[in-house]
Amino acid sequence: MKRGQVEINETLLVLFVIVLLLIVGMVMYFRFSLAKVETLGDTLDEQESTVLLAQASTFPEFRCNDRDCMDTSKFLPFRTTVHTYAPFYTSSLGYKKITVSQVYPLTTNVLCTLELYSQDAYPENCGFWMLYDRQPTPLKQAITASTFVSLYFPEIDEYRIGRLEVTRYA
Amino acid sequence: MRKGQSEAIGLLVIVILLVFIGFLYLRFGLSGKPDTLNDARQNIEANGLLRALLLLEMENFSFQEEVSFCHTTSSCEDLKGVVEQVLSTSLRADMTYMFSLFAENQPLLTIGDCKLGIMSRVPFTVDGVFYEASLRLCS
Q: Nearest CA to A104 among B135, B89, B94?
C-alpha cells in the first residue's frame, strides 16, 4: 500500500470515529430529552392533582353555604349530577377517583349510599363517599394524594373531620 | 501543517466531543426532581387539618367553645386530650406535629414537638378574644 493510501485510510478512520461519537451523543441527547419530557408530563399531572386537591373542597357542587367545609348532604346528589353531565365532568376531571372519608370521630369503613342515607342510623352507618371514579383501560398507574377537610352533616348539625383523596390514573 | 500536529488536533476534537457528551449526561441524567410539590401538598394538608379542627363541632364538644373555656379557666386538659386524639388518629404514624394555641398573642397551649416542617397558622375570634392556632407537620 502506498503512503497516500495509508493517509486516506487514516483520515477515513478518524472521520468514522468522529461520526460514531456524534451519533452516540445525539442518541444520548434525545434519550435524555425524551425522559425529561416524560418527567415534565408527570410533574404537570401531579401539579394538576395538587390544585384539584386544594380546590375540591370549594367546588360549588358540595361546599357549605357559609363556612369553609364540605356539605355531606350534597355528595350523593353530586353522583347523579356527574352521570347527567358526564361530558362536562369527564373533560374537566379526566381519569381520576375522588373520595371523601370521615377520619374523626372514627367510624365504619362502609360506602355511603342512598339506602344508608335514608336510614335513621345515618351518619353512623357509613364512613366514606365515592364522588367520582373514571378509570382508563388498561390501568397502568394510580397515584393518590390527600388532604383534610371539614365535613358538615346538616341532618345532625355537626362538623366533623374528613379526608379528601384524589387518585390520578395513568 | 505536519502530520503530528494534525493528529493532535484530531485528538483534541475527540476529547472536546467526549466532554460535551459528559456535560449532556450531567445536565439531563443527574438533575433531581424538585421537591416543591411535596411541600405544597404538606402545606395543603396542614392547613386543611387545622381549619377542620377549628370547625370541629359535635354533640358534646365544640372546639371553639373549648378554646374559650381553656382561656378563661386555665383548664385546658379536655382541649388537649381532644387535639391529641384528633391528630393521632388523622396523621400518619411516621409524622410528628406541633400544635400551638395563642390567646391575644400569649401562648395558651403547646402539644407535640416538631421543629422543622411546614407550618400553617389560622387566626380566629371567640367572644371578642383574638386567638391564633398553628400546626407544624414534620415527616
A: B89
Direct distance between the N- and C-terminal alpha carbons of chain A, in angstroms, rounded to an integer:
63
Contacts of B80 (CB under 8 A, 6+ apart): B109, B111
B chain contacts of residue A68, beta-carbon cutoff 8 Å: 51, 55
Report yes or no for ipTM above 0.85: no
Distance CA B107, CA B130 (A): 12
Looking at the domain that runs over B36-138, which CATH code has it been given?
Answer: 3.10.50
| Set of chain A residues whose Cβ sits within 8 Å of the Cβ of B13 | 18
What would you report as the CA-atom Rg of chain B, rounded to the nearest whole angstrom?
28
Domain limits of chain A?
A: 37-169
pTM over 0.80: no
Please write the tens of the pLDDT for every residue from B65-119.
999 999 999 888 989 998 999 898 888 888 899 999 999 989 999 999 888 888 9
Cell of A57: 373542597
What angle, 0 to 180 degrees and rounded to 10, lies between the N-to-C axes of helices B63-73 and B77-90?
140
